[in-house]
Amino acid sequence: MSAAYENSSAPPKPQVQPCRYKTGKTLGSGSYSVVKECVHIDTGRYYAAKVINKRLMVGREHMVRNEIAVLKKVSMGHQNILTLVDYFETMNNLYLVTDLALGGELFDRICRKGSYYESDASDLIRATLSAVAYLHDHGIVHRDLKPENLLFRTAEDNSDLLIADFGLSRIMDEEQFHILTTTCGTPGYMAPEIFNKTGHGKPVDVWAIGVITYFLLCGYTPFDRDNHVDEMTAITQADYKFEPEDYWKDVSETARDFIRGCLTVDPNARMTCHKALEHPFLVEGHRGNDLLPVVRKNFNARKTLHAAIDTIRAIHKLREGGTMDGALSISPENQKEKEIAKQTVGLWRKPAGGVMKP
């Protein structure tokens, strides 16, 4: 754990008390928690509650405390950051109560549109970058920015885009830059300095913004490779291209220049959030031609490929675990515990309803 986090004042431990909320339908689930729609018993207002099983989180309680600390510091300070409404614990569970975000995930929303232009991508990145700049100004690095963590507040066309899931975020000491050393995040969006273990800070979020921008303009990520080793090598060398040309012919040079400024290997030479917000890509809002046909085609192809890869990996995993004629060689309960033990700091999976990362 970083010195900055260890030295920061830990949030007070929530008091054990009766639950003041009535939970409803499940919006998403993961290995350690479930997200449910909930209503405050006294006020009748609806929220989303991340319900975290305390037994399954033994030894990882710091992640929840950290998420509470970060959200308490920035909640209600920026319209593009998910608001923490309440937090408490009962005998068995920890609860993080937030505003509902029922507008769905970023890329799913794009694919449902009738048209999609470079200026639309620019608007989305500007909103995200503005929120990240706010986090950085308050000494917080997110460390897990990706499309799945960008949610819409409502289904309306003018809905706010929200940054969610602060489980891997850190409150940093402004006087210390290279202080975070834990390898964490989603590999395709992680900056070179995380893989190189040279220490990292706020610039990792700008790198992730560059990957997200590339993704929003073509439908696939810049460092997609056949295996994790090749992917890591590509990232550490910033080995990417704006190819094939058919997919990029309608993307402006200004947008490409913005991506280059974010995907700079040296974090000291990488754009800061405030510098990036001044870039012509975000200021001028070039419209160009409709990008949706290419973006949707590539995104759907990528989903199909990754689903096939996940299926193959699952089959190999079952074989390695010792299966015969479809029967596990260990009990399902032990298999589940074995899987839980393998989990790293990226604890929560993608929710079904696009609300809060469980």
From TrEMBL:
It comes from the Eukaryota. Keywords: ATP-binding, Kinase, Nucleotide-binding, Serine/threonine-protein kinase, Transferase. ATP binds at residue 50. Signal peptide: none annotated. InterPro entries: Kinase-like_dom_sf (IPR011009), Prot_kinase_dom (IPR000719), Protein_kinase_ATP_BS (IPR017441), Ser/Thr_kinase_AS (IPR008271). Gene3D superfamilies: Phosphorylase Kinase, domain 1 (3.30.200.20), Transferase(Phosphotransferase) domain 1 (1.10.510.10). Residues 21-282 form the Protein kinase domain. It holds the Pfam family Pkinase. One of its GO terms (molecular function) is ATP binding. The keyword ATP-binding applies. Belongs to the protein kinase superfamily. This is Protein kinase domain-containing protein. The lineage of its organism: Eukaryota, Fungi, Dikarya, Ascomycota, Pezizomycotina.
